[in-house]
Amino acid sequence: MGRLSDLWVAMAIRRANRINATEADRLLAGQSTDAGRAGVAALLSEASAAARPGELAGEAAAVEDYLRVRSATPSTVELSRTPWYGPSPGRTVAIRVAVGLVLLSAVGTVSIHFGYLPVRMQQVPGSASSSSTSVPSPSPSSPGARREPGSLPSAGPLPSPTGSTEPAAVPSTRARPPAVAAGQVDDGASAVTLCQTWMDDRQAKAVHDDVTRRLESRMATLDGPNGIPAFCRKLLDSPATTAAGTTAAPTATATTPAAYPGNTRAKALKSTAKATKSGAKPTATATAKKVNKS
Amino acid sequence: MVVGSFDAVNGHNDDPDLDAALNAAISGDQNGFAVLWRTLQPPILRYLRVVVGAAAEDVASETWLQAARDLRNFTGGSTAFRVWLFRIARNRGMDERRRAGRRREDSREPSDQSLGGLPVPDAAADVLEKWGTDWALGLIATLPPDQAEAVMLRVVAGLAVAQVAEVLGKRPGAVRVASMRGLRQLARHPDVRARATWGGTVDGRDADGGDTVDDAPDDGTSEGV
After folding, report:
1. Do B213 and A70 touch (CB under 8 A)?
2. Nearest residue on chain A to B206, judged by CA atoms?
3. In the predicted structure, residue A58 carries a pLDDT above the cut 60
């Protein structure tokens, strides 16, 4: 216990004798008169002692450097104070050209990516954009090549005039022939497809509004939805469309589910095929064949 | 060594003679520049000896060269010039320390000098330089860099706390604490105690006043500023 108290007293004495901020200020200012700080005071006094001759040896060289720098300073100062971004014709032209090239390349890249190329550029065969991307440029008269936001989905792959099913095998939307868009007069083949779809939907009692609306747009001279059956019958009865329709039917069946969310139309087509096999109700195509044979 | 009146709070007041020399040097008078150099070269050199060691003279030359180059744009009195000059010296010293570090990394050879320290003294030099300026600078150079710089700028350069803070880029409170801790550490050094005893000014006590307790590392937390 005695040792502990001695240690405590010693620590208290040491703490009380430590240099505090006030005493440090006095020591640093050379004003300390405390005998206990004589060592530190002597140290600081030696550190700030008068200059020795060796420390002033380079005066002549320093003055010479000063004169040399002063003689060279005016031009240096003027040069350094010239703003680097000051007017310079060459620099201005270079900056403008660079900015133009960057903007052009950026806009071109975005346009090619999203299909917003200018009409004239798309019409030029083998133009830089189409050759570089290897994407067939869409016809300027068929804006349906690119699906607009909120527009109707494609009516499915169109039958090839030669009876081949190659278009159905192309997965890209851009590679397909132009799809049918609302309010646009399309060729006869797409009308046949629409008619087949509409009649199949009607048979399945699930007529799609989009198809009806599209057909109405092609029947502007007829009397609305009531004229669709007659229009489609007339269209499907023609020999060319019948041949095309028969070959296109499997293709449409194979690829349409992807075009219609929910597979509503696919189910309808499947049910139609079952009905045809069982002989319950002939499809519109079969009906057209019979008519042609007779 | 320093010119002009000095007080503990404000450091050096503007010295009329030094102000005149400064104005003359700004206007291109080499005599004015010579006066400035003679007045401030010793403290600059001593400060740089603590900061960069043996490269102090080269760094001091770079300092004066830059000061001569930029002196045309300087505005202010002799005190502001003192702060400005020591700031230049410190920046050049930091550059030299970086260069020295790169040289050491490139060569991969052990250096005989610590970073910013003085050469390791041998016995003969120790005897010759005992109790001299080099001894004092060598002891101060053993302090941590911030404490050594604070002590040197306050004692040798004669700058006030605010001016030292301006040079070091720190707050005045930090400068005050650093200089106080530096002095405490110096007071515990055996050579400083021996110097106090040798000077006959101490009546049996240590210079630090604590002769019964081992010197523990100063954490600086037991006493406020």
Report:
1. no
2. A36
3. yes
Q: Residue A47 and residue B133: Cβ atoms within 8 Å? A: yes
Question: Quick count: other Cβ atoms within 10 Å of Cβ A72?
Answer: 11
Q: Among A28-42, A177-191, A274-288, B77-91, name the most confident range.
A: B77-91
- Supply the pLDDT for residue A288: 45
d(CA A229, CA B160): 103
In a domain, B209, yes or no: no
With an 8 Å Cβ cutoff, is B135 touching chain A? yes
Q: How many CB pairs under 8 A join A and B?
A: 176
CB contact under 8 A, B192 and A43: yes
Please give the helix or strand (H or E) that residue B50 lies within, else none. helix B30-52
Collapse the DSSP code of A70 into the 3-class scheme (helix H, G, I; strand E, B; otherwise coil) and give the result.
helix
Give the residue ranges of DSSP H helices in A82-208.
Answer: 89-114, 119-123, 128-133, 166-169, 188-203
- Is the per-residue pLDDT at A5 higher than 90? no
Q: What is the CATH number of the domain that holds B133?
A: 1.10.1740.10
d(CA A68, nearest CA chain B) in Å: 9
Give the pLDDT of residue B82: 93
State which residue of chain A sits closest to B61, comparing Cα positions. Answer: A62
- Going by pLDDT thresholds of 50, 70 and 90, the confidence category of residue B123 is low
Give the domain range for residue B192.
6-198
> What is the C-alpha separation between B210 and B205, in angstroms, rounded?
7
| ipTM of the complex in this document | 0.71
Instruction: With residue A73 as reference, give the H or E element that holds it.
Output: helix A59-81
How many CA atoms within 13 Å lie on the side-chain side of B71? 33
Domain limits, chain A: 89-133, 146-293
Model-level pTM? 0.49
What are the backbone angles phi and psi of residue B7, rounded to the nearest 5°?
-135, 160
Residue from A6, A14, A19, A45 to probe the interface with B (highest B Cβ count within 10 Å):
A19
As a whole number of angstroms, the distance between CA B37 and CA A65 comes to 12
Q: Is B115 on the interface with A (CB under 8 A)?
A: no
The residues in B 16-45 lying below 8 A from A, measured between CB atoms, are 25, 28, 30, 33-34, 37-38, 41-43, 45
B168 located within any domain: yes
In chain B, how many domains are there?
1
Nearest CA-CA distance, residue A115 and chain B, Å: 56
In a domain, B215, yes or no: no
Mark yes or no for CB contact A44/B6 under 8 Å.
no
Closest CA to B93 of B63, B137, B69: B63
For residue range A93-126, list pLDDT tens digits in order: 899 999 999 999 998 888 878 776 666 666 655 5
